[in-house]
Structure formats: C-alpha cells, structure tokens
Write a structure and sequence with these properties.
Layout: H1 10-29, H2 34-41, H3 49-75, H4 79-100, H5 109-124, H6 139-159, H7 164-174, H8 180-202, H9 210-234, H10 236-263
Protein name: Probable membrane transporter protein
Subcellular location: Cell membrane
InterPro entries: TM_pro_TauE-like, TSUP
Length: 264
C-alpha cells in the first residue's frame, strides 16, 4: 500500500504532475478536471479507490482555490449568492463522502449519464443560453434555488466527483440565468467548498496521501491559474465550446462505466 511519494516511481510522479496541470486548466474553465486527474491517480501502484478519491480532492482544492481567487479578481461575482451556496454545498459534499464509503457509485451512474445527455442537448440546441446574465429568480427565491443547487451538486461531488464544476455551471446558467463566465466564477467558489467538505470526512479517516496530494496540488494551482485567465480572456463563447467538449467526454466515460458494471 502506498503511503506517500517515497514508494512511487519518477515516471508516475511526472504523469501525476502533467495530469494535475491539465485537470486544473480544464476545471478552471468549465469543470470536469476529475476526468483527467482521478484516472491518473488510479494508476499509482497500490493505491486504493478511497485513497485515490481523497488525494484527488486534496490536489483539487489547491486548483479550485487558485482559480476562484483569479476569477474573483477579474469578474467580481456576487458573493451574496456564492457564499451561502458554498456553505450548503460543503455540507452536501460531506454527506456524499460519508455515503461513498458505504455505497457503490455504480448505483448512481446511470442517473448521472441521463442528466449529462440532457445537459449536452440543452446547451447544444440553445446557443444563446449563457451569452448574457438574465436572472430567472428574485429575492428569497433566488437564494433558495442557489442553495438547493449547491446542496444537490455538493452531495454528488462527495459521492462521485467528476463533472461537478460542469454541473454547477449548467445549473447556474439554465436554472438561474447567469452567463457562462459569471457562472464559472461562482462555480469555482462553490467547488472549493465541496472539496473541503469531502476532505473533512477523508482526512480524519487517514485516506489522503499527503506527499502525492501536495505535488498534485501544486500542479493543479498552476493549471487553475492559467485556465481562469484563459476563460476570462476568451469569454462566454469559448467557455460554452469547452463545456460541450467536457460534457461529451463525461458522457463517454460514465456511460462506459455503466456498460462495464452491467456486464460484470
């Protein structure tokens, strides 16, 4: 069983660094960096699925924090919505992580695939969605919807993980009426909280490989900073295109998992 970096070959460490850098960039733009990072973690010899998930969260929180700070400095998202949403999402993520230790993710994957297909079709056939911010709710209803989104997607992040940022963005765009850029900025703030919520469960249980997690975190920070700057510079149309590409990859990955689970 691995305990840190000392038992891992240099080639594997380099792979983890490259995966962390790429995942940080993708995650900062549209979410879904876990598609790259988590499979790379599972290639570490002797690592258990729980250790991979926990260490992935450890690395991701560095990248999401960096991209959240970068977005905030350039986009100035409304914290009156983002912070309550983040608090609820953190609690949801903790609950999802607890369940992840006791229930196989395969139970939920078919539902997630169906939701992703609906999201992809919705985004592809409504090209004007996310071009401008046109809020759908006002007053208390706005905050209630935001907190519901945070709780549900936070729970998903603690339970399964990949695609959390993408789900947050499409929910903020379609259910709340934000433009893609502002949705991405808010999603990163919430994503920091969901990673923290999962770590509140994983750290006391000794599931995090700290040496590997810190290396992954440094790579994720660099990718998150570059990704956030790219998204801000390129704007809503660029984010929408990358979003559709990442959602498509998520559908293929999780759909493949469901297929193999059914054959097993």
């Amino acid at each position: 069983m691995v305990s840190g970096l000392e038992s891992i070959q240099l080639g594997t460490v380099i792979l983890i660094i490259v995966a962390g850098l790429a995942a940080g960039w993708v995650d900062a733009v549209v979410g879904g960096g876990g598609l790259i990072q988590l499979p790379a973690m599972l290639l570490v010899p002797g690592i258990s699925p729980v250790q991979a998930l926990a260490t992935n969260k450890m690395g991701s929180i560095f990248g999401t924090t960096t991209s959240a700070v970068t977005y905030y400095g350039r986009v100035r998202p409304d914290l009156r919505t983002a912070l309550p949403m983040a608090v609820i999402a953190m609690a949801g993520s903790f609950g999802g992580a607890v369940l992840a230790a006791n229930l196989p993710a395969s139970v939920f994957k078919p539902i997630i695939v169906a939701a992703l297909i609906a999201v992809a079709l919705f985004t592809a056939f409504r090209p004007n969605v996310g071009a401008l911010t046109k809020l759908r709710h006002a007053g208390h209803r706005h905050y209630v919807v935001a907190c519901l989104i945070g709780g549900v997607i936070g729970f998903y992040d603690g339970l399964i993980g990949p695609g959390t940022g993408s789900f947050l963005i499409i929910a903020l765009v379609s259910a709340m009426g934000y433009a893609f850029l502002e949705a991405s900025a808010k999603a990163k703030i919430v994503n920091v909280a969901t990673n923290a919520g999962a770590l509140l469960f994983f750290v006391p249980h000794g599931a995090v490989l700290w040496g590997l997690g810190l290396v992954l975190g440094m790579a994720n920070m660099a990718g998150g900073y570059l990704g956030a700057r790219t998204a801000v510079k390129q704007g809503n149309r660029f984010i929408r295109i990358v979003f559709l590409a990442v959602v498509g990859a998520l559908i293929i990955k999780l759909g493949s998992d469901v297929w193999h689970d059914n054959l097993a």
